[in-house]
């Protein structure tokens, strides 16, 4: 089976701790929004006291999550708890957290793009057909039930990935690993699976190549160079010296009166 598609950058999962931080922060933010919404009936000092209390709870939860996940984030506020507890800094801390969220999302998006590919209609249908062929072959072969169920589970997981907007390469890698363990036990009966998996690998690789070519910026249009300026050739006539100044008699001849 072809394993050229399985490279480190494709099989490494996105940073789970960073994604966990996003989930926890989203939960803390939802709680903060709900609490702040309930403050509409409050006014004056009562409102701000409660608001700062809820904001402090949010910040404490976020910082505790960063420390628990051992993420290199919010380092200044972690090292300066008094500043983190100062209500005058709440707005800045919130901005810092928001900036971190954007950075993680952008980084995760770039990782996902490197570790996945968008399948057009034609290649997606071909891969579905190949998955069905593998399923039918596995169902018809007498292999240990745990092995059969494990491979079918991988096939179903990969089929679900194929139906998504972007198909993860590591889902295909997991299928290859599982299939390799089964094929090795009944080589002759499951030999066609090798060719089908190689075909799936080629379709994924071709889709990735096509996507990369589309993502590159087109080369700038070549401009025609303007013709070089040419120095006018010298006149063929000989240079004539200026006429001598006219005398008084000559001037009288030129005057018609």
Structural account:
With 257 residues, this protein is mainly α. It folds into 2 domains: 8-114, no CATH class; 117-214. It has helices at residues 8-11, 16-37, 44-69, 75-79, 81-84, 90-114, 121-140, 145-162, 169-183, 191-215, 248-254; strands spanning 116-117, 167-168. Helix 8 packs antiparallel against helix 9 and helix 9 runs antiparallel to helix 10. It is elongated and about 80 Å long. Residues 1-14 and 234-242 have low confidence and may be disordered.
Keywords:
257 residues; mainly alpha; 2 domains; two-stranded antiparallel ribbon; 2 strands; 67% helix; 2% strand; elongated
Q: What proportion of the residues form beta strands (DSSP E)?
A: under 5%
- Give the distance, in angstroms, between the N- and C-terminal Cα atoms: 114 Å
Mean pLDDT: 76
> How many independent structural domains?
2
Instruction: Specify the number of helices.
Output: 11
Total beta-strand segments: 2
The whole-angstrom Rg is 38 Å
Largest sheet: 2 strands, antiparallel
Which regions are unreliable across 5 or more consecutive residues at pLDDT < 50? 1-14, 234-242
SSE succession: HHHHHHEHHEHHH
Give the neighbour order of strands across the main sheet.
1-2
Q: What is the overall silhouette?
A: elongated
Helix/sheet category: mainly alpha
Share of residues in helices = 55-70%
